[in-house]
Design brief:
- The chain is of the alpha/beta class.
- It has a single domain, classed as Rossmann fold (3-Layer(aba) Sandwich), CATH 3.40.50.
- Helix content is about 45%, strand content about 20%.
- It has nine helices and seven strands; from the N terminus they run E-H-H-H-H-H-E-H-E-E-H-E-H-E-H-E.
- A hairpin with a 2-residue loop joins strand 3 and strand 4.
- The longest helix has 16 residues.
- The chain is globular and about 50 Å long.
């Protein structure tokens, strides 16, 4: 029997008080695994600033972020990601964020994390939250290596709507099949998908999204005190 409710969650600054993409690149830089560490940090900061202004394209992000994957073997990447989860991600998962996700899982809702960050970085994080489905930007993988290119439609801005519709369609479903559909997000970049659900919820919203939510009467929640990613 299909759930009558759909619950979608953005990840970075929504369920996590940080940006996992930014932190992964920072982790590689500070551990000497990102070429020139200072140059990598500068690029990382620039991408974050442009993302926060709503001026970043998926292709611009991929050139740097997916390039970090292409530079290393999958064996090494997997090993480093385990350390990244232990040192950076798991300590940052709050009880309130876990409780929010668990409330939807306990209700029998169909749940998915929908994030622009690539699936290599985010699949273990989705598992840590117990969320069974992940809609993320996919990195192309050929002949045992990442290529540094995006595979298919990136899960970003309007692309999130496309990817969610494709994911549901593969299960013989559509957004309109759910009398109630939730999407939690902090970012103005996610307005296209927020507009498609019946229950748009601005979670720890950026100032711009908070204003939009207040103007449109969307629910606003704050799961944790706003914490800036470390850019030192």
């Amino acid at each position: 029997m299909t759930s009558r409710r759909l619950a979608l969650f953005d990840l970075d600054h929504t369920l996590l008080p940080l940006d996992s993409d930014y932190q992964w690149a920072d982790y590689l830089a500070r551990t000497g695994r990102a070429g020139d560490p200072e140059q990598a940090r500068r690029q990382n900061d620039d991408l974050m600033d442009r993302y926060n202004r709503g001026e970043l394209t998926a292709e611009q992000a991929a050139e740097f972020m997916l390039g970090l994957l292409a530079a290393h073997s999958p064996f090494d990447l997997a090993d480093w990601h385990e350390e990244f989860m232990r040192e950076v991600i798991r300590p940052s998962i709050t009880d309130d964020a876990r409780a929010l996700v668990q409330s939807h899982l306990d209700a029998g809702d169909l749940c998915a994390i929908v994030t622009a960050t690539n699936s290599f970085v985010t699949a273990p994080i989705a598992r840590a939250f117990g969320v069974p489905h992940l809609v993320a930007t996919d990195a192309e993988y050929l002949r045992g290596r990442y290529t540094g290119r995006i595979l298919g439609t990136p899960s970003f801005k309007e692309g999130k709507v496309v990817r969610v519709n494709d994911w549901l369609s593969n299960m013989g479903l559509a957004l309109t099949d759910f009398p109630e559909s939730f999407f939690y997000s902090d970012s103005v970049n996610d307005v296209p998908l927020l507009e498609k659900v019946t229950r748009p919820i601005a979670a720890n919203p950026s100032p711009t999204l908070r204003t939009i939510a207040q103007d449109r009467g969307w629910q606003v929640i704050d799961l944790f005190d706003h914490m800036e990613d470390s850019k030192s």
